[in-house]
Amino acid sequence: MIIDVALGARAYPIHIRPGLLGEAGALLSPFARGGRLALVTDEIVAGLHLEALRAALGDIAIEAIILPPGEATKDWRHLELVTERLLALGIERRDAVLALGGGVIGDLTGFACAILKRGCRFVQIPTTLLSQVDSSVGGKTAINAAAGKNLVGAFHQPAAVLIDPAVLATLPRRELMAGYAEVVKYGLLGDAEFFGWCERHGAEVLAGDAHAQVHAIAHSCRAKAGIVAADERETDDIRALLNLGHTFGHAFEAETGFSDRLLHGEAVALGMVLAFRLSARLGLCTAEDAGRVAAHLSALGFTVEAAALGLDCPAARLVEHMLHDKKMSGGRLPFILAHGIGQAFVARDVDLAEVERFLAGQLAA
Ligand code: GLY
Questions:
Q1: Element (H, E) at 140
Q2: What is the pTM for the complete model shown?
Q3: Which residue among 104, 141, 189, 239 has the greatest number of ligand 1 atoms within 8 angstroms of its CB, and so is best to mutate?
Q4: Is 215 a catalytic residue?
Q5: Which residues line ligand 1 (CB under 6 A)?
Q6: Which partner for 302 in 97, 160, 174, 269 could form a disulfide, CB atoms 3.0-4.6 Å apart?
Q7: CB 190 within 8 A of CB 44
């Protein structure tokens, strides 16, 4: 299956097929120069998938840059290391670097390629559900800075995205769930019918059902491709809808130190529940819709009650975290709220005192 991201001169295909990694030679060999390809990955992904990719590429040599796994790798030091290594390998603008891994590898490699000789090509080969349905598509690349996550980066679209859903078989269930939150997001923000599909088939996606996984990934990528084509740089209140659940989620991630205590996708799941509950409280959507969102995520094992996180934290501090989010604009914090399932919108006039009272209630519930 091929989904096109229609961006004119920067258009690219997303290829989705179980087993694609082992058959990637035909798709990747046009990117090789002098019989070799540079690749960035991490130690865990290298152990799981690098040999399959080497075998698929036959005579084309892979020059692998293998980094430590984890969010801490998305920093200035590893950006320098990757960039210098790519320069030492003689990478030129028309070359393409392969990014094999999850969001950390994709974001870091993409940013290195954005600045290397003022921009060289790269190919995303995402290996987590979260990166397959979100971060590998759309060209957001970044590293973390002392002041916060993803604060230094560039829009730099990949030359292609290769998604092999079969690699999800080695992903821990918790990581699979974290990615699934972003799948549900596409239903909640703009496609009530797809949310209904998630209600019926979400458990199959998490159980490893290949057919359900391909459907979830393809639908998500098609939705994201449409959004990115319409608003590549998040200037028209269209791409911003992808931040549904992220403002509340960011507050909980910040409070838990962006640690394994709460994964990004877990924070987004809780954040989406809170965005719908706040929408219901403000009279924007029905309590039934908010209840449906919580019921679906809760049935699959997500934490949907802020109180269950066991945080010793006043609501005011969560609001304070939100104010440090990079989504702040002109001193105001846009919230993604909803008129119903599949009807998200950007709200710029939300009263933060009301948000604080709402959060106090959620923390005490
Ligand atoms: N992950 C949000 C976006 O790509 O815009």
A1: strand 140-145
A2: 0.95
A3: 239
A4: no
A5: 134, 138, 140, 239, 242
A6: 269
A7: no
